Amino acid sequence: MSDIKPRFEFRSFGQNFGIAEEKMRRISPVEMIRESSEIYIMSTANNENNTKIRDGLMDIKVFVKEEKGLEQWNPRMKGSFPMEKSVISNEVFPAFGIKMPELHRDQYTLDQFLQEIIISHSELTAVRVYKRRFAFTINKCIAEIGDVYINGAHLQTVNIESVNIDDILEAKRMISLDDYENVNYLIAIKRVIGMEFLPDDFYLK
User: Fold this and answer.
1) Rounded Cα–Cα distance for residues 28 and 161 (Å)
2) pTM of the predicted protein model
3) Sign of the C-alpha dihedral computed for residues 32, 163, 148 and 146 taken in this order
């Protein structure tokens, strides 16, 4: 496991990636279609730990570094429910960067965790995200384009990732993504729910 290198990622969001999608489908056949329903936990104090729940499992990834406009993320923890109080205290809440409320149970089911800890907290928000993604291989990179619904608001997303930065940059060029902003899920979700503002020139690009 220590030999596994975290991948670098480019991701962007928008209403339509028509030209990029057309080029992706021309270069590579669709290799897989994946659908998932997830819950992202958003914190007012954190943009460096991606915390989500999928298939009843808590998944946290931590931002490592940015290089040449790409982001590198590394798995931080995976946890299942019911979840022990000690795991919530020592592994989950530090990722939010805020003060932890008093925990009254020795362990929490998923519903108890959401209702009693997350939804009731003034600095945390649980956001439902549905994804339908089409996977490709572009210039030896994992790539996808998909439909994302953030609390029901529809966006498209496009993603390219690899351990090799130069391969990603060339893949971006191949499918005409050089002028797009790199935006991770944390920032995209915060923009949709009003927790973070769009850039001043967003509509001028």
Assistant:
1) 15
2) 0.92
3) negative
